[in-house]
Amino acid sequence: MNANRGNDQEILRNYRDFLEVERGYSKYTVTNYLDDIDEFCGFLRSKKIDSICNVSVNIARFYLMELNKNSYKATSVSRKLSSLRGLYRYMIMEGYVENNVFNEVSAPKHEKLLPKQLYVNEIEAMFDAIDCRTIFGKRNYAILEMLYDTGLRVSELCSLKVSDIDYNSDFITILGKGKKERNVPLLKSLKSALKDYIEYSRSSLLLKNKDEITDILFLNHRGGPLTERGVRVILDEITDSAATTIKVHPHMIRHSFATHLLNGGADLRSVQKLLGHVNLATTQIYTHVSKEQLIAEYVKYHPHANKIEDNKSKENKEENND
Fold first, then answer.
1. Which residue among the candidates 153, 202, 255, 260 is catalytic per the annotation?
2. 252-284 pLDDT, tens digit each
3. Of 16, 125, 186, 247, which residue is least crowded by CB atoms under 10 Å?
């Protein structure tokens, strides 16, 4: 039994390396996958099953029942099952098991939620809330400009290097998922924000780091590379200053970038290329967001839409008088 436990640890160590190195996933994503797997391993221990290699289809189905019993949301259950399918695909590839037992387990159906996005005035309010007279204000402004002008994932933003910025050709080289490179345009507004940050803020922050000189573009208060969590904290601080109740995360700004482009008439395939999506279907969800906004604007401004609401109010008032 102990030998199997040791084998499991080796498999999971190798799987972590596979996700980080070969798949190029961010540490945040890898941690989420491994947390889901660790939860499953705890379930196996409680059922006296000595290894992840000895899991049957019945055990996989029983685990699904346990997840449902614990009142997890359908989206959470789907994510956990996806993490386990990925693990067992890897284990088949490496010869640890012959079958992916989680292919026999159906994820619960759930309503497909449209990605949340910010309106242009909400984005502008965030920019206006930043004090660009300070070292960190210049940095935070450049971060928000980078996220909104390029649609980068937060992992891509944190791995950006100074050398990735080409001011002559006005392009930024992005190393995306799966170590795939893409180029995004360097807009004048972003170029100005970056030059201001690099000249006045980044140089000052570098002096705080006595251990190393890094080429990473965005630095923390100690002069080291800014983390994904650090970016989320910065966005929280900006929204607090903007006196908004909206909880803004980096991916919401990415959604806004795509939606605003499509609302402005951008070609779907161009947006796909800018976002670094492999499949066009992934990008198409943003067209649904645009349609939702179109309907909202129609109902808000079309005279007949307002007329219908007025008639309903009038009818209700008459009924109350009766």
1. 153
2. 999 899 888 888 888 888 888 888 887 777 777
3. 247
For tokens 């080409």, the residue is: 166
The catalytic position among 177, 182, 249, 273 is 177
Helix-, strand-, coil-residue percentages of the chain, each rounded to 5: 65, 5, 30
Active site residue 138: no
Residue identified by tokens 């540490």 is 27
Measure the CA–CA gap between 274 and 68, rounded to whole angstroms. Answer: 38
Length reported for the chain: 322
Does residue 90 have an active-site annotation? no
Predicted TM-score (pTM) of the model is 0.60
Please pick, among 138, 202, 254, 255, the residue that the annotation labels catalytic: 254
The Cα 224–Cα 218 span in angstroms is 8
Q: What are the tens digits of pLDDT across the range 25-83?
A: 888 889 999 999 999 999 999 999 999 999 999 999 999 988 888 878 888 888 899 99
Contacts of 180 (CB under 8 A, 6+ apart): 24, 276
Q: Choose the catalytic residue: 96, 141, 148, 286.
A: 286
Share of the chain above pLDDT 90, in %: 55
Q: Please name the residues in contact with 39: beta carbons below 8 A apart, sequence gap of 6 or more.
A: 80
Average pLDDT of every residue of the chain: 85
Q: Which of 45, 110, 195, 251 is catalytic?
A: 251
Question: What's the pLDDT band for 291 if we cut at 50, 70, 90?
Answer: low
